[in-house]
């Protein structure tokens, strides 16, 4: 990592391509796999509401790139904005650079200038850039016209919500990562009685993992019902 970054950044090893349930987002998965291998579009722009897996795909892209000896970096701009755009210096050295939450720095003149010049350096060096935001390029509040046009240059893909079957597969997969087994009935109960966005479900699964371990119980519908009535 370039020296300007004031903190250690690590990708989440659990957010791999293998752990991603694509559902209607197969095109995004394929594009980022290609990007991690050094192919495809020089810029891939993902957008969609919170909880659809943008961060997961960016983490997975970095992991896959590193697995083939390509240098990569994942920068969550919502967390890094307070450190200033100087942390982007030298990032053109990365073979694959993933920028999350582009909208978090939109409207900040210094950040917008730094991103514009970084895009140019990455393009000139033949590197790959993956950007993610909560809206399409035309829908985020970027003031710099040149940056707005750069964001729309590459492949733009919208992420869509999973249907119930895919969401159940994603919940089951995440539970297995935590060491829990979820029956289809328990998974359906979760979807029927809990917030349905994946981020909320992941947090709930982590709490349930701790609760079942503490109680030395399996995750059953009665246990889940009791837990939801009296969350710890």
From TrEMBL:
<dbReference type="GO" id="GO:0032297">
    <property type="term" value="P:negative regulation of DNA-templated DNA replication initiation"/>
</dbReference>
<protein>
    <submittedName>
        <fullName>DnaA regulatory inactivator Hda</fullName>
    </submittedName>
</protein>
<dbReference type="InterPro" id="IPR013317">
    <property type="entry name" value="DnaA_dom"/>
</dbReference>
<dbReference type="InterPro" id="IPR055199">
    <property type="entry name" value="Hda_lid"/>
</dbReference>
<feature type="domain" description="Chromosomal replication initiator protein DnaA ATPAse">
    <location>
        <begin position="12"/>
        <end position="157"/>
    </location>
</feature>
<feature type="domain" description="Hda lid">
    <location>
        <begin position="164"/>
        <end position="228"/>
    </location>
</feature>
<dbReference type="InterPro" id="IPR017788">
    <property type="entry name" value="Hda"/>
</dbReference>
<dbReference type="Pfam" id="PF00308">
    <property type="entry name" value="Bac_DnaA"/>
</dbReference>
<dbReference type="Pfam" id="PF22688">
    <property type="entry name" value="Hda_lid"/>
</dbReference>
<dbReference type="GO" id="GO:0006270">
    <property type="term" value="P:DNA replication initiation"/>
</dbReference>
């Amino acid at each position: 990592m370039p020296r300007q970054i004031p903190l250690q950044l690590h990708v989440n090893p659990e957010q791999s391509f293998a752990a991603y349930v694509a559902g209607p987002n197969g095109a995004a998965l394929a594009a980022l796999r290609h990007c991690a291998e050094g192919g495809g579009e020089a810029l891939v722009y993902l957008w969609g509401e919170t909880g659809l897996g943008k961060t997961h795909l960016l983490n997975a892209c970095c992991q896959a790139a590193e697995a083939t000896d390509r240098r990569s970096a994942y920068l969550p701009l919502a967390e890094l904005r307070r450190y200033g755009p100087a942390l982007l210096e030298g990032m053109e050295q990365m073979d694959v650079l993933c920028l999350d939450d582009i909208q978090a720095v939109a409207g900040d003149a210094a950040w917008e200038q730094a991103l514009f010049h970084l895009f140019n350096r990455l393009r000139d060096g033949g590197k790959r850039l993956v950007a993610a935001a909560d809206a399409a390029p035309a829908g985020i509040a970027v003031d710099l016209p040149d940056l707005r046009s750069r964001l729309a240059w590459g492949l733009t893909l919208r992420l869509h919500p999973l249907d119930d079957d895919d969401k159940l597969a994603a919940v089951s997969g995440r539970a297995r990562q935590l060491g829990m087994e979820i029956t289809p009935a328990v998974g359906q109960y979760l979807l029927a009685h809990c917030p349905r966005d994946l981020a909320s479900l992941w947090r709930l699964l982590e709490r349930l993992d701790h609760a079942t371990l503490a109680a030395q119980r399996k995750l059953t519908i009665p246990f889940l019902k009791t837990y939801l009535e009296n969350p710890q």
